[in-house]
Amino acid sequence: MSSTATHTKRRRAPLSRERVLRAAVALADERGIEELTMRKLAKELGVEAMSLYNHVAHRGDLLDGMIDLVFGEIDPPAAGGDWKAELRKRAVSTRAALLRHRWAVGQMEGRTSHGPANLKVHDAILGCLRAAGFSIEMTVSAMSMQDAYIYGFALQQTDMSSQTPEDFAAVAQQQMVDYAEALADYPNLVEVVGGHVAKAGYDYEAEFLFGLDLILDGLERRLSAR
Amino acid sequence: MSSTATHTKRRRAPLSRERVLRAAVALADERGIEELTMRKLAKELGVEAMSLYNHVAHRGDLLDGMIDLVFGEIDPPAAGGDWKAELRKRAVSTRAALLRHRWAVGQMEGRTSHGPANLKVHDAILGCLRAAGFSIEMTVSAMSMQDAYIYGFALQQTDMSSQTPEDFAAVAQQQMVDYAEALADYPNLVEVVGGHVAKAGYDYEAEFLFGLDLILDGLERRLSAR
DNA sequence: ACCTGAACACCGTTCAAGT
DNA sequence: ACCTGAACACCGTTCAAGT
Asked: Which of A18, A220, B133, B154 has a CA positioned 20 to 30 A from the CA of residue B219?
């Protein structure tokens, strides 16, 4: 058809859904979700925006695919072993994936389609809980609760620009200054944030584990109280 | 200045930040957050888009203001009474506010400014926990954990179009059909969702309270174990 | 089968101009 | 002080046309 001379332009790996999704995740990770537009993504791939529609149905489909790539990074828990340790590992690994891809948790709202990686992880969680001896009803409750906590914690962590305890302390200190004239209305914030957090900071990892272990302990108690 | 004859057009209440924010919340509630554009909001208020910029700095400022209106609907817990009952009431009231305004939880990601209603509720939570006898460190952990759970649960509830247990069962049933050929890979989903949820449904309210009480009980246990 | 140019119907925001 | 028209630099998506 076309002579070899006509396309001396830089060779491009052919587009595929996989390649589009991976490029989209990379772009959102690096520049934020609001910078992820069909046009910019296409440019990143050396192609025009309209070509993307050969591989994703629309922007919502793109986001569904991206989110399932994030789920693919989660370690699914094994069934039959130490269920608490397995679920703890999965929770930590989920949080890590959501931290690597900070845009992800904010995009889960309203998204009703669930990809295969999502289904696989949740199937494994259900299997782990059932093997541990939880009733079907308790299994549903236990999984919902853990997901709510994990996603909610990740959501909160995007609320603050600071990530290390020291950063957090600095931000808290600055906020005490910024809100100075209103502080009389918030005596407990002054005591707890001004008096403690602004000095000691806030350790996201430790706080996450505190709540996670409280939940797992509570579930274990309800399991043995049957 | 201008004669009375020159503006016989329909009298409009003058714009104000308050009026702009309330109209924005109403529009987002009714038509969804993606329908909330500066132009459509302006039209709703009988004005041009550019007039809004006299009352909000930009779209992000608009969203910050809207979210603080949602926080204003939350019952703050009282300090000194039955702390578990107070915090339970606050959690239920927060969830109710987030259900009335389904767009809200998805907009919390990355939002770093906190309005007065937000600060007021959180000050009250801290006060309640301190009065109950929690150390400053535990107070921080307890509040973070409750917020994470509440927001995360609300986020999950936007993932499903169905709200009543019966709706949920119908959706679960349909999904079993849709995913039929992949179901061999997910034996636990088949057992738990196919065998139970698709029949009994899923009661969001009951599930929320299950996790909430597990958390409050766990916190109480850690309080008395000091 | 896959890619593209042009076009459509939108966005948020700015700026100078009106009252 | 508050509102607006026109404009700028974008969006997602469709469609007919190219190879």
From this structure: B154
The number of residues making up chain B comes to 226
State the smallest CA–CA distance between residue B98 and chain A in angstroms: 12
> Could you tell me the domains of chain A?
3-56 (1.10.10.60)
Nucleotide nearest to B48 (CA to C1'): D4
In chain B, which residues from 40 to 79 place their CB closer than 7 Å to nucleic acid strand C? Answer: 40, 49-50, 53, 58-60
pTM beyond cutoff 0.90? yes
Question: Can you give the three-state secondary structure of chain B, one letter per residue?
Answer: CCCHHHHCCCCCCCCCHHHHHHHHHHHHHHHCHHHCCHHHHHHHCCCCHHHHHHCCCCHHHHHHHHHHHHHCCCCCCCCCCCHHHHHHHHHHHHHHHHHHCCCCHHHCCCCCCCCHHHHHHHHHHHHHHHHHCCCHHHHHHHHHHHHHHHHHHHHHHCCCCCCCHHHHHHHHHHHHHHCHHHHHHCHHHHHHHHHHHHHHCCCHHHHHHHHHHHHHHHHHHHHHCC
